[in-house]
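Hey, I'm writing a tutorial for new members on how sequence and structure tokens pair up, and I'd like a real worked example in the thread rather than a made-up one. If someone can provide the structure for the chain below, I'll link this post from the tutorial.
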Amino acid sequence: MGGPPAPPAATPAATPAAAPSVAVVVEGPGAHRLVAHEPRDPAPGEALVRVHATGVCGSDREVYRGNRPEGYVRYPLTPGHEWSGTVLEVGSGVPASLTGRKVVGEGFRNCQVCDRCHAGETTLCSAGYEETGFTRPGAMAATLTLPARLLHALPDDADLTAAALLEPAACIAAAALKANAAPGERVAVVGTGTLGMFAVQFLRANSPAELLVVGSRGGREALSRQYGATDFRTKDRELPDDFDVVIETAGSADAARTAAALLRRGGRLVLTGIPAPGADGLDPTDLVVRQLEVHTVFGAPPDAWAHTVRVFAAGLLDPLPLVTHELPLAEFSQAIELVGSGDPTVGKVLLRP
């Protein structure tokens, strides 16, 4: 006689379906939606990148609120100009060895043939303004396709969450290169946000005799000193007026005036913040009489990006303490609110696909 009937075959456990890929699209001021995202295959000279994280900054809030100057945004738009990721695929003409590499990327889509581009000043490209996340699709999506020439490869062991902050770091690297602080000079930073904390790190690497940080609140003193500041003062305290170099990062006319007042005669000032249109500016008489050397930064050219990646790879930049929030793309609205909240406990906000 036959034995007992065999037990029914086990049913394989169902594999959870992968979450659908989405992208944020800002349709116009104050209006956005999540849409299904389909990766765009790389054309010749391009690379397809899987996005790891995207930083949210004040300019993204400008895009959402409609405050960005005309010509510097094009709706509808997927934002995201601060990002890190991994190359999934490359188009023809791009070295296959780039596939699988961790990368960050420049935002400015320069023409490469005008006089300014040939001089390395790609943020001044004569062909007009084009930038990832503002006039071209950005990284608030599962993937990003862009010209491979804009990519900067990172070490294999790089922390991609930290690397998502290298775009603002590159802007400050541009400021530090223009400031050209020499060892032993007295240097200062006005502003204690993400840009200000990167400015402290870059200036500290030049071995200054003194490194002062000036902020509106005292809550950033501990982090400023951790990054190398030798002194911290709030702007309502008495401030010195004999510094060699000052980098301003706060983005207000008041901060610019405070930064200029910190300088000795003949000192060097670099402005990186963008005040509101129509704000009262620096006193031109004061600039001339004190013979101040003034530079400005809007974006980062390739040399600043290369410098930033080298410094990051050498372990001389520590972005992670600046990150306070990591949210999924679906919480874009909350991220925008956090960035504009004025809450001193909010640092860098990242979105994750």
